[in-house]
Design a protein that fits this description.
The protein has helices spanning about 1-30, 30-105, 185-195, and strands at about 105-115, 120-130, 135-150, 165-170, 175-180, 185, 200-210, 215-225, 230, 240, 245, 255. By secondary structure, it is α+β, with helices and mostly antiparallel strands. It folds into two domains: about 1-45; about 105-255, Sandwich (Immunoglobulin-like). Strands 1, 2, 5, 6, 9 and 10 form a six-stranded antiparallel beta sheet that branches. Strands 3, 4, 7, 8, 11 and 12 form a six-stranded antiparallel beta sheet that branches.
Length: about 260
């Protein structure tokens, strides 16, 4: 009987031990909710990564847009600056050209009359070479010719380059007077031509000069005098005043 009671107690103790061990295992195992929580965190982790990547992409896109507009505006600034430089250069060139136009020497030639040579046997034509500009005309040289003709529409006025000579300085708004060297007209020949019919004197030539800006200029001239507008002062005396000369329709030009 005693032995049976001990066996029963031993069995009860063993059963109680198993119960305690089982309870401890039960308490140590995670609950279903606890098992789902890490899975939820693992599911949420990819979503946070996606959000961060999206934010990074948006920032990168903003940087790209900013860079594009900055480059575009910089290009526009470069273009505008280049246009300003071009405009300034063109303006300076235009101003320089305008200054030359306004300030350079301008040489013109007016009639100076036809008079007798000092010995009274020949006629010589005079011209007034005028500088109407604001700069001096330097290295001025010229050729002057005189011819008597029966027509009022003379067209042939040749100039020999070897006859263009001289070395004069004409101040601004200054005037110098010169006469033709050769050929001159014999007074007796002129009188005979007048008696034969209509006669005209042609005075033509050219003046070359530097315009104050180291550029050569040329002024061609041709004046015509009507023989009927002469005055005789006794035998062998003759005078044709400057106001009787008129610019001819040919032979006048400037460069």
């Amino acid at each position: 009987m005693l032995k049976r009671s001990r066996k029963v107690r031993l069995i009860a103790l063993i059963a109680a031990g198993f119960l305690l061990v089982g309870a401890d295992c039960a308490w140590s195992q995670p609950s279903p909710a606890q098992q789902q929580e890490p899975e939820a965190q693992q599911e949420q982790q990819p979503d946070q990564t996606t959000i961060q990547e999206t934010a990074n992409i948006a920032v990168a896109q903003q940087i790209v847009n900013y860079t594009f507009w900055l480059a575009l505006l910089t290009g526009g600034l470069v273009f505008a600056t280049g246009g300003l430089w071009i405009t300034s250069i063109c303006g300076l060139r235009g101003q320089r050209k305008e200054t030359r136009i306004l300030q350079r020497a301008y040489v013109g030639v007016d009639p100076g009359g036809i008079k007798l040579w000092s010995d009274g046997s020949e006629l010589v034509a005079h011209v007034l070479i005028k500088n109407a500009g604001n700069m001096p005309a330097s290295n001025a040289k010229w050729a002057i010719y005189l011819r008597a003709d029966t027509t009022a529409d003379g067209i042939d006025f040749p100039i020999e380059e070897s006859h263009v000579d001289g070395f004069r300085f004409i101040v601004p708004h200054g005037t110098i007077t010169f006469g033709n060297r050769v050929p001159r007209i014999k007074l007796q020949d002129a009188l005979a031509m007048r008696d034969a019919g209509p006669c005209y004197f042609y005075v033509w030539g050219r003046v070359d000069y530097l315009d104050g800006f180291n550029r050569w200029r040329k002024t061609g001239f041709c004046h015509r005098y009507n023989w009927g507008q002469t005055k005789d002062y006794g035998v062998g005396l003759y005078e044709l005043t400057a106001d009787k000369g008129r610019p001819h329709r040919k032979g006048n030009y400037t460069t």
